[in-house]
Here is the input.
Amino acid sequence: MSNIGYVHSIETFGNVDGPGIRFVLFLQGCSLRCKYCHNRDSWSLKDNDAKEMTVDEVVHEILKYREFFEASGGGITASGGEPLMQLPFLVDLFKACKAHGIHTNIDTSGGLVLSDRNVSLMTELLKVTDLVMLDLKLMDPKGHKDLIGFPNEHIFEVARFIAATNTPIWVRRVIVPGLTDSEKDLKLTADFIKELGVVEKIEVLPYHSIGEGKWEELGYEYPLKGQRAPTKEEMEWAEAILKTGLE
Here is the structure.
C-alpha cells in the first residue's frame, strides 16, 4: 500500500495520549484549520521540515521502547496533524505493529471524507486498531465552520463508521471559553456520545495559547489572540455535562 509516511515529530514517552506510556507519532498534514491549533506547521502534508520514514523505520524506533509499553499497558498513538490524511501508510504501520503485539491508538478529529477508497482503507485500518481518541470540537455547524474552517457533517459520518465496527472510542473536547462550552452544544455532544454506544471515556482538555508563538514564528497572525483559558470550575462543569453521554 504505502511504505512511506511524512512525520512531523515523535514523542517517545507520551502519557496523555491513551492508556499507559505511548510512542506518539505526529503525522504531517491536516484537513482542518482550527484557530487554536498548536501544531500550525503540521497542516501541509509535505512540509519542508517533515521527515520521510518507512514503516520499518518507525517500527524499529517503536520497538526500542517495547518494555515500557508492556509494563504500563501502553503502545503507539498516531496523532497529527490529522493521521487519517495518511491512511495507506497508517494501515501498513498498524498491521506491522499488531504483528509485534503492540497496542494501537489513533488520535483523530475525524477529518476524512468517506469516499469508496477511504471506506475500504478505514475498514482495513480499524481491524488493526485497538482504540480511537476522537476530538469532537463542536456540534453546531456554523460555530464549527467559523472555528475549525470546515463543516462537521463528515466528522459525524467518520464517528458513526468507527462506532459501527465496535472499536472503542475515547471522546475528547477542548474547552475554549465562549466558543466550545455552551450548555446547548455540550448537551448535544453528550447525546451524540450516547448514540455512538462505544465511548468508554471522556476527556476535557483546557484551551491554552501555547501555539500562539509558533503561529507568529511562521509569520501568521494568531486568530485567538487574547483568548483566556477556562477555569477549573468551567472544566468540571463541562465535563459533568459531557459525561451524561455515558449514562
